[in-house]
């Protein structure tokens, strides 16, 4: 069932190593069918080289595996938490891409220093608080989703304005209206992190981008006045 | 019309990801036919993988689209401004190449530290001032061209001596007597930026290159006494 | 004899340049048949491009070459020392991968800053003490093995919990239950080293990962409670 | 004439971009036939993609072009100077490889921090003094060779112990008993420079390698007691 959804999830998963976002088996992508409340996700610990569309595991929003012979990614509860909290998103991607992960490990948000960043995010790419020993000891992957949601709720962030987060000590998660868009955001996050790291080498106290330029760039690509791309809604 | 011009612009555009200068759809190249006052430019937000020569959009120097079904790059007014101000140039390239963009984000020119740099530029690669809220709010992309031109006019820079600029908080623009040369300069800018960043790590107060060595290297490749390459005019 | 073992060692050796872990001929991999007490190792100074399975040299645990026309890697005594001391391992890999070697040259362990690291190691990747002039002057490669073993013995490290080491001033050695796993660990070490270097740029005094998160990540992939991957024993 | 020599020089030249040592047309390799006193060198400013063995230009040790329709590399006098001074070498390579050039631009030798470096060099990779305005104004490329030779003569360096140099503000030159070996050294220099830069980030005051380890590693690959590789004389 849901062959098209599984294919989308599959294509997103294999795009990750192709774009240099994945080392070994660190990473996974999922795509949801909102009408059915079911998402397709990568099986756990399978090499990308051997992955097939049919290996994708189908899971519903209660966390029940509804199809698939393989065990789903161990990060499945994090994906599920995000699909439940962020109702407008259609796909989630998790990578350990090197530069973004360096910020996550350091517990630092990625500061918004230029228009490349502003084309995708309406501010710094946020980092979560550290997880508590109790959160880690119990339903760890579900709680990982919870600290992400907490970060967005407390700051009143719209997930469409901030389509990525860094989990403290861990790595980035991204999302989009579909999983292909979430892959694109993952590429952007890695590239932005690399640039930010170098800008910080040049100017350790570099202030973030001016509000007027941030507004201009984000809005020319997003929302009702958008004029970038062919549809005005890239 | 202008099939050859469109092909040149197309070749330049697809050369950008091939040389690792482009992430996602960040970047564009244009080529002008001076006799007709028309330039060919990449359409907005189209993936490089799917680009065809016929997708190139033709625009005249008044900014009127004269051919093409797709919308031209949102950066088209910046290209047009440069073609109007710098009359000797035949092509313009814009990238967000990572190392050069790191300097642009930090509002720093790329200091001239060695002969690699001196083979292409007669001094530091300049950075513009920041744009004002008013410039950003109105004709943003046209005003981006204006701050570039202002930077060159105020410093009395010849665009042939300085075939690139960093737009503050944004990224590099390059040019050349034709668009293939502008691509070559984009490659050089990225490479020079990378080297400069590392030289600064080694020596944070490194002075720029000695005048006599700058003169020698720039002049052996450019101008009447040039003796590099097969034509003396590389 | 031992065609399968030689093929395994061969596959591991050619995987090293494929994953960007090797420059020139710096590196080697070996696989052991524990029942026979014989291991297969790369011949010394042979270009990876020309390597064939039959070039692998067979050596026993007393250091006697039991098959092969070529001379074994000059690092053979280090491999032998590790096979003797760490009885559970089936393969050893040595590279000079750039980021990990930068730590080794600086005499620094790779600090454990995030979950990528914790998925493979139960703490910092240790570095040996410097070798003494006498150790260097005598059986250098054997003594290289000895300082590794000394590091593990003195700290009571289980080689399964710490499947890699940095030899001071030199480079990393890794191991695993088979040589393919040792290659995987080599990839992980290089990637972890790169991330750690960048995290240190961001936060020079960054503390290492919290104990509870380290435990969680290491244990979800290793040991009796593991639930990552398809077998629970990745 | 000298078809074999031209082919060797050609192979070395096209190996440079293949190994990521060359950006644009920055670089050249030459091979000498000592019995004839003639060397083959890359033509000036020709794209590596279009290079053919027959494009190699033959030049004698007096600097006279003895064959070839194209102009030889503008760096030809530097190569010639090195062939005259260092009588045991059979090939010279010049690149602007990024990490090594960063050291050259900063006027810094590459400090010897580990065994990777010690396998190729018997100490730091030296940097020349800056050239004087007069040296630059007159026979610039010949004088570039002269400052290299001066550096070696004043320090009594054997070119076999130090098969590379950084020209201040410029970039590396390497050499070897043949041009293929000079290419190999160019790869090693770039890799060593990258590692040194990172080790310096970790430990800005890192002392260089201990004398006994330097001796051991250099001597196990070079000279009468060498035991690395298949011939003992790699």
- For this entry, what is the oligomeric state of its chains? homotetramer
Question: What amount of the residues of chain A lies in strands?
Answer: 5-15%
Number of structural units classed as domains of chain A: 1
Radius of gyration of chain A over all CA atoms, rounded:
17 Å
Count of alpha and pi helical runs of chain A: 8
Pfam families (chains A, B, C, D): Aldolase_II (PF00596)
Domain Class II aldolase/adducin N-terminal (chains A, B, C, D): 7-197
Catalytic activity (chains A, B, C, D): L-ribulose 5-phosphate = D-xylulose 5-phosphate
Keywords (chains A, B, C, D): Carbohydrate metabolism, Isomerase, Metal-binding, Zinc
Description of the structure:
The structure is a homotetramer of 234-residue chains. With 234 residues, chain A is α+β, with helices and mostly antiparallel strands. Chain A is built from eight helices and seven strands; from the N terminus they run H-E-E-E-E-H-E-H-H-H-H-E-E-H-H. The longest helix of chain A is centred in the last third of the chain and has 24 residues, at 179-202. Chains in contact: A-B, A-C, B-D, C-D. At the A-B interface, helix 7 and helix 8 of A face helix 3, helix 5 and helix 7 of B. Chains A, B, C, D: Residues 7-197 form the Class II aldolase/adducin N-terminal domain. Chains A, B, C, D: InterPro entries: Aldolase_class_II_sugar_metab (IPR050197), Aldolase_II/adducin_N (IPR001303), Aldolase_II/adducin_N_sf (IPR036409).
Outline of this structure?
Chain A is α+β, with helices and mostly antiparallel strands and 234 residues long.
